[in-house]
Each structure stands twice: as structure tokens, then as C-alpha cells.
């Protein structure tokens, strides 16, 4: 055999190539372990973060509760004083001193006050613990540290408001509010309900117009009444700022309405609120969109610690904890922190581990790739060789050799197969075999019924053009002609069924499914017309007569499959659909047209191509008349004049079909021929009318 060497080459067993597979497995296992380690570290980090932030949230909630409890303890002490329990609250310097001392020791408190069932009321405020606008609205000396309001109903004295210095020295005195009734305030009403909650609010305070909470407790001895103290929301800023986690963490208080009731930057959030300041900022103002769904999930029974990503992809952990002292006020503490801040070192180590693992894997990949490529190179060449044989690309190539014994044998077999195929390729129609191989059509006898588009072509005057020519030349030029048409048909998903002399029979939607087979067939015919014109130009230059081709196209059901004998088969289509396509091709000679199609073709392709009606025929085997149309070109490429001509002719043809030889129809036909004297279809119908008129005259 050509190319065979007499000396046997060194061969090794194919099992040696398993090394490549082993390297691949090692890499796969290594990367998998790295990934699992990465995932495990991530899981451990998240578990630790979840546990840690829960403890932080618990401590934070305990701290906030402790602040509230300290206030509550001071309120209970105040409620136990006889000066509060006795009816005389006016001019009670000792009581004023105790209230001022408690306010000094509880910086979160804005004021302390007591209301009684007879409408009496005493209140002491720390002026500078409210917003600056509060002091400005009072218009008092800057040395005033406390505001004291006394409404004594028992003494019958008028309400009075005093401004006291830090040492409780009176600085100014003005009339007190006459319309204020503590018994109508929320803190007084709720204190006597069957509710053990410590808080009332949040609501807007009467004195400052600022939102806050009231901590209150009812008097259990002496006069019936309530002792209370106000905590402004802005006083939570420093307290919550101490609870944050990391550089970017946040700790804030919120209620059931998803409103923020305490935040380290509460003043800024309140200032950014549009319109009325009676509302509290929503949680959504924190610009963490995923936080609100997590809080809602927690409220519906979800876990108290959850992870989420912000818009930039940064991972956060959030924890929510209820405040024990809030009671029905239903305040919760939320802590949110980026995971990478308080577990930064673990995350850095995780990234380092992952980077090292990737570096190791990356360092081994070149060697594995080199070894695999060397071993796979003969196999790749054999695959390319078998693909080329399948495409009938059987040019002479050298035999493929390999050090692996099995691949060496395979190379010899492929070389032998190519030689055999090359020997028989001259006798087998390559396009048909290629398409049958690509589509996987069964080679056994038999077929099935399916819708197909069938094309028949024929060269006008072929016999007259070639009967005196050299037969070898006829075969050469006709083969070139068939090659041009076949290439265009197959390029548009058609199947060459057979060559019949100078004719071609082609199918669409068989053997492979083609949902656009009618459109593809029409487009293939137009491509064949264009390619045929180019080829005819070459034939004229070479002194060979041009091949003017006529086409007939029809779509319908046919029996498609292999016919013949067990040792000689032909893949084809049979039935009336095939016969009608052949009949349409032959009718071109009558009408002087190039491409005739049936109404079954025009209907699905009319949106893409320009057609015009030609005639109505009743071929043998068909019960109903068949409308015949001429394919003129693609609609998108047609000129306005061409479209107008076809539309005008269809109107004339409609009149012919409806009125026959009526005088008005003849006038319209004559007018059309006047404008288009060379139109062969119009000339055909004019001749038909003249012949009919002559026959009528002869009978008369």
C-alpha cells in the first residue's frame, strides 16, 4: 500500500494514554476540593458571623433595655417621693431639686413630669437636650438651663412657667399654659390600661414638637396620677452609635410600621424627610433595598439572622432583636454590618487559599495540556479525516501514524476506507449521498407520506442546442450547469432527487424537516436564475450556447422514501404533487414564462415574493382547477413599476376569470397589451380570445 513502511514502528499500549485522563481527574478533584474548602470556609464564616451578630444584637438590646430600665427606676423613685404624692406641688424647692438631679444623671431624658387626676401638672425640661429651635422659640436668657411648668389645680393658682439656671436660680417667669390637660395625653391614658409596657409612642411632644417616646409609671400611693419622662428620638443617636459593628455597620430601632424610631444619624434622617416632620423615616431610606424583605421575613417567622447583598454585590449580615421593655410599643433593634469588615482576616485567608490553589492548578495545566495534545493529535487528525470522507472531500492525504498501537491501526483503516470511497465516488451522486448521511435517512426500502415542495427544471431547446455538438463537450458543460443549479438548491436547504437528462428534480422538507420549505424553494429558484445568467455569460464567451432554464414548483403531500430493490435504491418522492410540479414546468413553454408555481406555493410565500396570476388549469388526476402563477422575484427587491404591472395584470386576469370574453374584459386586456406589448402571458390570453372568436364565427 502506498505510504506503508516496511519497518514496524515502535508501539505502546493504548492504556498509556490513561495518564492524560489521570491528570484530568487530579485537576478535577483538586479544583473540587478547593471549591469545597472555599464553600466550607464560607459556610463556617457565615455560621460564626450569624452567631456573633446574634450575641451583639442581644447585648445591644440589653443595653437599650438597660437605658430604659434606668429611666424606669428613676421614675419609680420619683413616684415614691411624698412631695410627688402630696397635692402641694407649687413652690416646692425640694421637689424641684430632686427632679433636676435625676435629669442631670440621666442624659437620655429630656424631661420629667407628673400629671394628676384633678388636672394638676408639674414638668421640668432640660432646654438644651431638644433641638436648638426649641430654645430659640422660648426666647429666654442663655443662662436658663431648666424650664419648670407648674399647674396646681388644688391651690387655685394660675399656671406658671419658670426658667431656672443650672443651680435652679430663677431667671425668668411667664404665665403657664392654660389649655393643657395631662389627663388627655397618651402617656396618661395608657398608664392606667391593663398593660405592663413601659413606653408610649412614638408621638410628637406637646412642648417641643419633636417625636419621641414617653416612659411612664402610675402612682400607686397618695394622689392618683402618672409620673413620666420623655426621651427624644435624637437622644438615641449616641447610644445607638456605640452599638454599631465595624466601620460601616449600623444599629437602629424600628417599629411595626417599618419606621426608624432610633438611629445614630437620626437628625440627618429627619432633616431629609420631605414635607411634614410628624412622620418618621422609613427603613428604605437606609439605601439597603434587601433589608426590608429580610425584616418582613423575620416578622413572619423567618430566622433572626440573615444574609443579603447590596446593589454593589457586597454581602451583609442582619440581626433583629426584640426589646423586652417595649411591650406593645413593639420596638426592635436591628444590627446590619458588612461581612467582610468583622471577618476580614478570615476572608483574606480564604482568598489567599483560593488564589494559591488556582496558581497550583494553573501551573500544572500547561504540562497536562502538552501531554494531552501530543497524545490526542493523531486522534484529531483521524476525526478530521473521517469528517472529510463524510463530506466526500477525498483528496489524497498521507497516512496518519501514532505511537499508540490502537490509533495506528485506526489510521490504517481510515486510509484504506478513503481509498475505497475514492474509487467508488465517481459512480455515486455525491450530493444525494452527502445529504442522506447528514440527515440520517434510513437506507432501507419504504417511505412515508409528508408535505414536500417539489421542483422540476428543464433546459429550453436542449436537444436542438446539443445534438450536433461533441458528446464529451455536452457532458462537460451540462455537468457545469448541473453543479451551479445543485449548489444553489442545496444552499437553500433543498435535496437533489435526480438528474433526468437535462432536467433536475429537487425536494424541500425531505429528508430533513424544514418549516420554511416553500419560502426556501422560491428563494432557491431566484438564486438559480441569477447563477444561470452568470454561467450563460461564461458559455457565450466560450462559444457554447446558453442554457435557458424553465422551472415548475408545487407543494403538497407525497410519498417520500427509498424505492427500488434491496441492492439498488433511489431516494425520491412519488404522487400527484410530483406530477403537477412536472406539469407546471412544461407549461412555461405555452405562456413564455420561466417560473410557474401553483396556488399552494403562492399562498404561504406571497408575503415575501412577487407573483402574478397566469391561468387556471385542471390537470389529469385533479378534481379541482389549479391556479397557476408566475414567480417574478423577491417582493423587497422589486421595483414599484414591476409591482404595479403585476397588480394591474392580476386585475385584468380577475376580469378574464369572471367575465370571460366580455367586451369590457377585452378592452382591459387590450389596454394592458398597449402598455406592455411584449408581455407573453397577456399575449397568450389575447390569442386564446382570438381563437375562440374565430371558432365561434366558423360555427355560425
From TrEMBL:
Where does the record place the Guanylate cyclase domain?
453-585
Subcellular location(s) per record: Cell membrane
Membrane topology listed for this record: Multi-pass membrane protein
Keyword terms: Cell membrane, Membrane, Transmembrane, Transmembrane helix
One MF term from GO for this chain? adenylate cyclase activity
State the CDD domains in the record: CHD, PDC1_MCP_like
Task: Provide the GO biological process annotations.
Answer: cAMP biosynthetic process; intracellular signal transduction
Q: Which PROSITE patterns match?
A: GUANYLATE_CYCLASE_2, HAMP
UniProt cross-references to SUPFAM superfamilies, sorted A to Z: Nucleotide cyclase, Sensory domain-like
Q: What Pfam families does UniProt report for this protein, alphabetically?
A: dCache_1, Guanylate_cyc
Any one GO CC term of this protein is: plasma membrane
Query: Which residues are in the HAMP domain?
Result: 373-426
Q: Which residues cross the membrane?
A: 12-36, 353-372
What's the protein called, per UniProt? Adenylate/guanylate cyclase domain-containing protein
The species is: Bradyrhizobium guangzhouense
Amino acid at each position: 500500500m502506498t505510504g506503508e513502511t516496511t519497518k514496524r514502528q515502535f508501539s505502546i499500549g493504548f492504556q498509556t494514554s490513561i495518564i492524560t485522563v489521570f491528570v484530568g481527574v487530579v485537576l478535577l478533584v483538586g479544583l473540587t476540593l478547593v471549591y469545597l474548602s472555599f464553600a466550607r470556609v464560607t459556610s463556617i464564616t457565615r455560621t460564626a458571623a450569624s452567631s456573633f451578630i446574634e450575641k451583639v444584637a442581644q447585648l445591644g438590646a440589653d443595653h437599650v433595655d438597660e437605658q430604659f430600665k434606668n429611666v424606669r427606676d428613676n421614675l419609680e423613685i420619683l413616684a415614691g417621693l411624698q412631695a410627688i404624692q402630696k397635692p402641694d406641688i407649687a413652690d416646692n424647692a425640694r421637689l424641684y431639686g430632686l427632679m433636676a438631679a435625676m435629669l442631670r444623671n440621666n442624659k437620655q431624658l429630656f424631661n420629667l413630669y407628673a400629671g394628676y387626676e384633678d388636672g394638676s401638672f408639674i414638668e421640668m425640661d432640660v432646654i438644651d437636650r431638644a433641638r436648638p429651635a426649641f430654645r430659640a422659640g422660648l426666647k429666654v436668657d442663655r443662662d436658663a438651663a431648666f424650664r419648670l411648668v407648674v399647674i396646681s389645680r388644688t391651690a387655685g393658682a394660675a399656671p406658671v412657667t419658670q426658667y431656672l439656671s443650672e443651680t435652679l436660680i430663677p431667671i425668668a417667669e411667664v404665665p403657664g399654659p392654660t389649655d393643657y390637660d395631662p389627663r388627655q395625653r397618651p402617656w396618661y391614658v395608657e398608664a392606667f390600661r391593663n398593660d405592663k409596657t413601659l413606653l408610649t409612642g412614638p408621638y410628637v411632644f406637646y412642648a417641643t414638637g419633636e417625636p419621641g417616646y414617653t416612659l411612664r409609671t402610675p402612682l400607686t400611693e397618695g394622689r392618683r396620677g402618672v409620673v413620666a419622662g420623655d426621651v427624644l428620638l435624637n437622644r438615641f443617636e449616641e447610644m445607638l452609635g456605640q452599638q454599631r459593628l465595624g466601620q460601616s455597620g449600623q444599629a437602629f430601632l424600628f417599629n411595626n410600621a417599618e419606621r426608624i424610631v432610633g438611629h445614630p444619624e437620626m437628625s440627618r434622617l429627619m432633616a431629609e424627610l420631605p414635607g411634614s416632620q410628624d412622620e418618621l423615616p422609613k427603613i428604605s431610606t437606609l439605601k439597603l433595598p434587601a433589608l426590608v424583605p429580610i425584616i418582613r421575613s423575620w416578622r413572619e417567622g423567618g430566622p433572626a439572622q440573615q444574609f443579603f447583598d447590596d446593589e454593589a454585590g457586597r454581602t451583609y449580615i442582619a440581626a433583629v432583636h426584640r426589646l423586652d421593655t417595649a411591650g406593645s410599643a413593639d420596638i426592635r433593634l436591628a444590627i446590619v454590618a458588612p461581612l467582610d469588615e468583622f471577618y476580614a482576616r478570615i476572608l483574606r485567608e480564604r482568598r489567599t487559599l483560593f488564589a494559591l490553589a488556582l496558581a497550583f492548578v494553573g501551573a500544572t495545566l500547561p504540562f497536562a495540556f502538552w501531554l494531552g495534545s501530543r497524545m490526542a493529535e493523531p486522534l484529531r487528525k483521524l476525526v478530521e479525516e473521517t469528517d472529510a470522507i463524510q463530506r466526500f472531500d477525498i483528496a489524497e492525504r498521507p497516512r496518519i501514524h501514532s505511537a499508540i498501537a490502537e490509533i495506528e491501526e485506526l489510521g490504517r483503516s481510515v486510509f484504506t476506507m478513503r481509498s475505497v470511497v475514492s474509487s467508488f465516488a465517481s459512480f455515486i451522486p455525491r450530493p444525494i449521498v452527502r445529504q442522506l448521511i447528514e440527515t440520517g435517512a434510513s437506507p432501507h426500502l419504504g417511505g412515508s407520506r409528508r408535505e414536500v415542495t417539489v421542483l422540476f427544471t428543464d433546459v429550453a431547446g436542449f436537444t436542438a442546442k446539443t445534438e450536433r455538438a461533441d458528446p464529451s463537450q455536452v457532458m462537460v458543460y451540462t455537468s457545469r450547469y448541473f453543479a451551479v443549479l445543485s449548489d444553489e438548491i442545496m444552499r437553500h436547504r433543498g435535496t437533489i432527487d435526480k438528474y433526468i437528462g437535462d432536467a433536475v428534480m429537487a425536494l424541500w422538507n425531505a429528508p430533513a424537516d424544514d418549516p420554511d420549505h416553500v419560502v426556501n424553494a422560491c428563494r432557491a429558484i431566484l438564486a438559480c436564475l441569477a447563477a444561470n445568467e452568470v454561467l450563460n455569460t461564461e458559455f457565450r464567451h466560450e462559444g457554447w450556447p446558453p442554457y435557458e432554464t424553465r422551472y415548475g414548483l408545487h407543494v403538497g403531500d407525497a410519498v417520500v422514501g427509498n424505492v427500488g430493490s434491496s441492492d439498488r435504491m433511489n431516494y425520491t418522492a412519488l404522487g400527484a404533487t410530483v406530477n403537477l410540479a412536472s406539469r407546471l414546468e412544461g407549461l412555461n413553454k405555452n405562456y413564455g414564462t420561466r417560473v410557474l408555481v401553483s396556488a399552494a406555493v403562492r399562498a404561504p410565500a406571497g408575503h415575501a415574493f412577487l407573483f402574478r396570476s397566469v391561468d387556471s388549469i385542471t390537470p389529469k388526476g385533479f378534481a379541482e382547477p389549479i391556479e397557476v402563477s408566475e414567480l417574478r422575484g423577491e417582493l423587497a427587491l422589486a421595483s414599484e413599476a414591476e409591482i404595479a404591472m403585476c397588480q394591474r395584470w392580476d386585475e385584468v386576469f380577475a376580469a378574464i376569470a369572471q367575465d370571460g370574453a366580455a367586451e369590457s374584459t377585452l378592452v382591459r386586456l387590450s389596454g394592458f397589451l398597449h402598455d406592455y406589448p411584449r408581455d407573453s402571458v397577456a399575449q397568450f390570453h389575447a390569442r386564446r380570445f382570438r381563437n375562440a372568436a374565430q371558432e365561434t364565427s366558423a360555427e355560425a
